[in-house]
C-alpha cells in the first residue's frame, strides 16, 4: 500500500531532511514551502533517487488563501496523506522588548496556529481510515523560558499531547519532536552567529529527523533530540531561568 507524507518547510533544513528520509522509506511526498524552485529541485532529486511520486505545493503558510489550499490538500480523499509533518518555522531575532509586534504575531501564527489548522484538516480523514501520524516539530525551547519562541513552541507541545491522548485510540498518533540546537538555516536566517553555542552543542539534522520518525513509528507522544539533549535534560531544571533566557535557544531576550 502506498503511503504519503506532507512536509511543511521542506525547502531547507529539517524539512528537506524529513523529505529525504521519508522518501528513502518509500513514502510518496507532498512538499510545502514558499520557495518553489528549491522544492522542485528537491522533488526531482528524490523522484530520481527513489522512484517515488512527489507533489510540489508552494505556499506561504502565513497567507490565509495559501494555508487553506494546503488544508484542502490534507483533507482530500484522493491520494490521501498518511503522515503530516508540521515543520515550517522561524524565530524573531530581536529581544522581546525591541521586536516588531507584527513579527511576533507572524512567528506565533506559523509555529502554533498553522500546525493546529493543518492537524484539524487532516485528522477526520485519518480517523475514517483508522490510521495516520502527525509529527509536530516543536523545540526543547517549548519546555524552557527562552522568549516568545518558547511560548509558541509550548503551545504545539500541549496540542500534540492532547491530540495524542484523544486520537491514539482511533489509530492516529501525534508526536512532538523537541530538538535543541540543530545545524540548518534557522539561525542564519535570524542573523544569529553559530558561536552562541560551542560546536559540540549542535546536532545534525539527519539524527534529529531520524529520532522524530522513530518516535512517530513507536507512537510516542514526545521525543527530545538528539542524544546530547536527552543526556542534558535532567540537569536543565537546575539552570537558572535568567541563564537559559540568554542562550538564544529560540528568540533572544537579551540585547
Ligand atoms: N535549527 C534549530 O536549531 C531548531 C531547534 C529547535 C526547533 N527547530 C524548529 O525546526 C523547524 C524547522 O526549522 P529549521 O531549523 O529546519 O530551519 P530552516 O532551515 O530555516 O527551514 C525553515 C523552513 O520553513 C519554511 N518556512 C518559513 N516560513 C514559511 C512560511 N511562511 N510558509 C511556508 N514555509 C515557511 C522555509 O522555507 P521557505 O523559505 O522556502 O518558505 C524552510 O523550508 C522549525 O519549526 C524550528 O522552529 C529548529
Automatic annotation (TrEMBL):
Q: Does the record bear Cell membrane in its keywords?
A: no
SUPFAM superfamilies in the record, alphabetically?
NAD(P)-binding Rossmann-fold domains
For this UniProt record, give its keywords in alphabetical order, as a comma-separated list. Answer: Oxidoreductase
Gene3D superfamilies named in the record: NAD(P)-binding Rossmann-like Domain
What CDD domains does the record point to? SDR_c
Q: Which Pfam families does the UniProt entry name for this protein?
A: adh_short
What family is reported?
Belongs to the short-chain dehydrogenases/reductases (SDR) family.
State the protein's name: SDR family oxidoreductase
